[in-house]
Write a structure and sequence with these properties.
heterodimer; A: 221 residues; alpha/beta; six-stranded mixed β-sheet; four-stranded antiparallel β-sheet; 35% helix; 26% strand; B: 398 residues; alpha+beta; six-stranded mixed β-barrel
């Protein structure tokens, strides 16, 4: 089992009122699945994704990643999970603006203490695998949106994670480019066996997934 | 480590003007401290050299001790001193106020042969007195006084009185006749006004049971303080020009510290600039920080990244501060020297050909280290703030 949640609940209390983002979510995702998390905005799907990605903590309930319980109170264990198990792809690409394409891909390996030469080698290889071998010294501002997202996908693979979490990766792209990116995500899943969880509100995109998990008002439908 | 700095450098490159301004701000502070301290150091060296040039550092002046009751400088004490290691010679003396028949007051100093060597006394005319005779040698000013007021010249006889006080305080005058056999060259010191005579003759006159003082010469200035400590253990009082040097060093160190402290206030301004700029930078890069955490950065990684930036700023500011400080020190020398020379008059003459500021390697090193430490300390708060950012909230920022 790659991902399992038990009674996962998250609420925010910005004012006096308690806002429920997730309520009693029980979820099982097997290794190698391609999952689409769908639901209207505000449904809690992004919250779920970030809790699974260990950068948000639940108010109640448990999360198991790769059959190990996540200790949300232990920040150094969270850091290790983020480094070793998880790769993120964002809607707004989120590349480091001061770094070249290759440096962006190297960045997560830097935190994972990969030696410099190996890092550069792997980053170059990953950049080639997303079809941008000739763009290694370009800054993000010199790349198109689609190219930036390809760099971001290569970055998500840097530390060879088992779980790829994508937050509307095609949301900021035109439909043609979006299809290319989606194709890449699928290939990661089919050819490299990565478990992919992708948040989307596009029903067509959701359609390409192995399984769609619908969330409404913090509950799985 | 190397990557950390290249990342930090990449960040700084993006904000060249801002970084340049902070570096300049701290560098000016460092330069102010280096400049002011170099002036204090330079003046200290000048003063110490001045003392060294006009005093013999191998000589210790010994007098009766007062700390543990009156300890007199007797023959046995003189012998103890002579037996001390590194002592070349000890020249004891007695000193008494004599008065001529025409009421000219003169200080007569009864001295040994060694005394002449220790004090490096030279004759201008005539010869040195013979031991156990009534012969005397005059200091230059004393000779002039006698010749002008009383028309007594070298070769003439000199009749003087010494007033002694008996046990009940009753005065008793002793009269003696001396012959002037020589005149000393001017020394610029006390000897110009004194009259030298044989110590045995002088003691016969004043009937003192101990000496008034002694000059002790050691073989090397390096041993002056240890010999002096030995003398003080005998209960006597010792003094050497090293005391003056110590006093000057102490005073100048205090002055330099105070001046350095006040010029250091500009460093505080520089440090606040770092705190301010780095805090702004944390806000600007909130999203990048959140992203870095999502990609696997620990709190410590983030903190190190910011501190590495501060360290680079500190290194650059340190180097620039050293350059500016050296230039500032030169300016102080060029502009300040004529002023000092004109204010000090005769004493300032020697300054004309030297520098009134002194830059030592340790001063430059201190300036550099101050810059580094300051940058790191000022960066701690912003770096900690960055490290503690909640990655999710940071990522959600646009």
């Amino acid at each position: 089992m790659m991902v399992e949640t038990k009674d996962l609940t998250k609420y925010y209390s910005p004012g006096k009122e308690k806002v429920v983002a997730l309520e009693g979510v029980n979820l099982t995702i097997e290794e190698g699945e391609f999952i689409a998390l769908v639901g209207p905005s505000g449904s809690g799907k992004s919250t779920l994704l970030y809790i699974l990605g260990c950068i948000d903590a639940p108010s109640r309930g448990e999360v198991y990643l790769d059959s190990t319980k996540v200790e949300f109170k232990n920040s150094s264990s969270l850091v290790l999970l983020r480094r070793k198990l998880i790769g993120f792809v964002f809607q707004t690409f989120n590349l480091m603006p001061a770094m070249t394409a290759v440096q962006n891909i190297e960045y997560p390996m830097y935190f994972n203490k990969t030696p410099g030469i190996k890092r550069r080698e792997r980053a170059t290889m990953l950049l080639e695998s997303v079809g941008l071998g000739n763009r290694n010294s370009h800054l993000p501002s010199e790349l198109s949106g689609g190219e930036q997202q390809r760099v971001a996908i290569a970055r998500a693979l840097a530390n060879d994670p088992v779980l790829i979490l994508a937050d509307e990766p095609t949301g900021n792209l035109d439909s043609k480019t979006g299809k290319t990116i989606l194709g890449m995500m699928k290939r990661l899943n089919k050819e490299e066996g990565k478990t992919v969880i992708m948040v989307t509100h596009d029903p067509d995109v959701a359609h390409t997934a192995d399984r769609a998990i619908r969330i409404l008002d913090g509950r799985i439908q | 480590m190397k990557e950390m700095f290249s990342l930090a450098f990449g960040q700084l490159i993006r904000k060249k003007l801002r970084v340049f301004l902070i570096v300049l701000g701290i560098a000016i502070g460092v330069a102010a401290v280096i400049g002011v301290t170099s002036l204090g150091e330079g003046l200290r060296i000048q003063a110490v050299n001045h003392i060294k040039a006009s005093h013999d550092l191998t000589i210790i002046e010994v007098s009766a001790g007062l700390d543990k009751g009156m300890i007199l400088l007797t023959d046995s004490k003189i012998n103890d001193i002579r037996k001390t290691e590194h002592v070349v010679l000890a020249a004891q003396y007695v000193k008494d106020p004599y008065v001529t028949m025409n009421k000219t007051y003169l200080t007569f100093k009864g001295v040994t042969k060694d005394y002449k060597h220790v004090q490096n006394l030279q004759l201008e005319k005539g010869e040195w007195f013979q031991e156990k005779t009534n012969q005397v040698v005059l200091g230059r000013d004393a000779a002039e006084k006698l010749s002008k007021i009383e028309n007594i010249k070298p070769g003439d006889e000199l009749t003087v009185k010494l007033r002694l006080y008996g046990e009940e305080g009753r005065p008793r005058d002793k009269t003696a006749v001396f012959r002037i056999v020589g005149v000393m060259r001017p020394t610029g010191g006390e000897h110009d006004n004194q009259v030298m005579l044989d110590i045995n003759k002088a003691r016969e006159m004043d009937e003192k049971e101990a000496y008034d003082g002694a000059f002790v010469k050691v073989d090397d200035p390096a041993f002056t303080s240890s010999v002096r400590a030995k003398i003080e253990r005998l209960g006597l009082k010792g003094y050497s020009a090293q005391d003056e040097i110590d006093a000057v060093n102490k005073l100048m160190t205090a002055i330099t510290l105070v001046l350095g402290f006040f010029s250091g206030i500009s460093l505080l301004v520089g440090a606040l600039m770092i705190v301010n700029t780095m805090t702004i930078s944390v806000y600007e890069r909130t999203k990048e920080i959140g992203l870095s955490k999502a990609l696997g950065a620990s709190d410590l990684d983030i903190m190190k990244m910011f501190l590495a930036e501060c360290l680079i700023i500190g290194i650059m500011a340190g180097i620039l501060g050293i350059l500016l400080g050296s230039a500032f020190s030169m300016v102080i020398d060029i502009l300040g020297k004529p002023f000092l020379v004109s204010q000090l008059g005769e004493m300032g003459e020697g300054l004309q050909y030297t520098s009134i500021t002194a830059i030592t390697p340790s001063l430059l090193a201190a300036g550099f280290v101050i810059s580094l430490v300051l940058s790191i300390v000022a960066g701690l708060y912003p770096a900690r703030r960055a490290a503690k950012l909640n990655p999710l909230e940071a990522l959600r920022q646009i």
